[in-house]
Amino acid sequence: MVGFLGYRELFRMEFKIRRVSKPPQSLLFTSPNTSIKQDKTASTDAIMRTTGRFSAENIFVPSVMVSNTISALSTVVSNQGNEGNGSAICWDKYDFGLLDRWEKAEQFFCKSLPSVNSSWLKCRVITQSQLPEATRPHTICDGQNTMFNPHLMKPTACLPSRPGYKCGGRAIHWLYPKGSLAANCKMTKHMMASAFPKDHLRDMFSGWEDLEEKNYKDMQSLRSLDGDYILAFARERTEHANLFHASTDWLNSYMSLAISGVVDARAGSHSDMERVQVLLLDEQTGPFESLYVKDIFSPFHPVLRVSALQDAQKKAFRLKRVIFSPPGYSNMFLSNLHRDLECNERSLLVSSFRRFVFESAGIILQMLDYTSSSARSTAELTLISRRPYSVAGVGHSFMARQIDNQEEVISSISKAVGDHVNVNVTDFARLHARAQLAKIASTDILVGMHGAALSYVVFLPPWASMVEMWPRISWKCFQHMSVLSGIFYQRWENRGPVRRDKSGDYTTVNVDEFIPIVLRAVDCAWLRSNLSSRGNILQPKNVKKCQQPWS
């Protein structure tokens, strides 16, 4: 019996038909070592979904050796119109339609001059109504030939635009006096404080200087940073080490690169990433920077910080192209946190982001015949364990939302699923980021208390399921991430008290209520994989439920 794909079989690539009733003959799997032929006559918003069965073997290699294997296997043809992903709401708020909205809003905030050293700044300002009002407006900017003067900047513990917000601790943010950012261009009527949210972006552009009158002639003689494209962003205090908030920064960075034309998110083309260099506009370090910030977003150049660019010579730098990514909390994953999402469809944009991360992390897929001996007949269930820890300079001596009866939960799950499922207990805080990603790539069912590690739902295989445990009423962010990732979602909600001591708080899980929820998640992952089914456990009433990402 052929079963789930696991770590050695990473994930099965999926292609969805949007407005094509069946795959054209020229879009098919031709051999066990599958290749895809693209029918250029097919509808431009068709994305093919195969029903072929195969497994895949992954190979970890340095980024420099990574080809476009994943994007070639999962060709995304440009979508045109709201029909590309079902409803207009889904398309406009959570898919490539969101990028379209930003692109249509493009305006010159600083217009180029007729000179060899000419510069420009373009911004796109929209309002995403589903996001918290405090994050508005939602702005993405990029510029050419921008002068960056780090020696003018002074460290601060508190953002001037958000007084009193997360100001405790050392000075990790920066003040931007006039001239911190400057350019040979003429500011337009669009350059105003209200065009930027009250966060890092407003602070940055408060220091923008128009050099039109000075007509600075030595722009080309300034020192340039290594990257042709500088991706600049700042993170909230401590949230750089929280996977949920960090993942919103990464998705915003990916969308900013797409809007600025550095990557083609629709086609899955990321060849220009070798020219991108990250400039962090905060002074925090954490557990995700070596993989996600360096290897994925700055693969060929060192990650830069303002403090490292400040020197005794007090010289400015020329940023040939600079992309300013908005803060992570202005991201779709924070939509409608206290109610159900108005969209119930997989987002092609989120899928494109997932492929980008796997490809950039150095994962190449080798397609094999599904009858290969490497295919397995069991599923992998990962239960997330939450315990106090201190890793990579980040410590949590108090850990909220621990499972008080964890051993009973593990034993009950193992007994219920039998030999069909391998139950693994993992504390992600004790794994390197790359090992965490590999673990998720091999997981068919993810189970855990409400917490940042559930953000990995975005990187689960497309047939996977996730079960979230609520010790109390919580944000619905992980439910929303499941929907947008096309992952089947289930939730258990605690009705009892929560115990607390100096090391954390603890919830006793009612296994009689919990196990049927886990079994439904297992059944649906098995059914959705198109590889096998467990007739002795799968109930007919669950089949219809499995057709929806959530219930």
What does this structure look like?
- There is one protein chain.
- The protein is an alpha/beta fold and 551 residues long.
- It folds into 2 domains: 101-334, no CATH class; 378-546, Flavodoxin domain (Rossmann fold, 3-Layer(aba) Sandwich), CATH 3.40.50.360.
- Helix content is 23%, strand content 23%.
- It is built from 13 helices and 25 strands.
- The chain has helices at 69-73, 88-94, 96-104, 200-206, 243-259, 289-296, 306-309, 348-360, 406-417, 433-441, 477-485, 511-528, 540-546, and strands at residues 54-60, 106-112, 120-126, 138-148, 154-156, 173-175, 181-183, 185-187, 208-210, 223-224, 229-233, 276-280, 304-305, 317-324, 363-369, 379-384, 389-391, 394-396, 399-403, 421-426, 445-449, 465-470, 488-493, 498-501, 504-507.
- Strands 2, 3, 4, 7, 8, 9, 10, 11, 12, 13 and 14 form an 11-stranded mixed β-sheet that branches.
- Helix 12 (511-528) crosses helix 13 (540-546).
- It is elongated and about 75 Å long.
- Residues 1-85, 364-374 and 531-541 have low confidence and may be disordered.
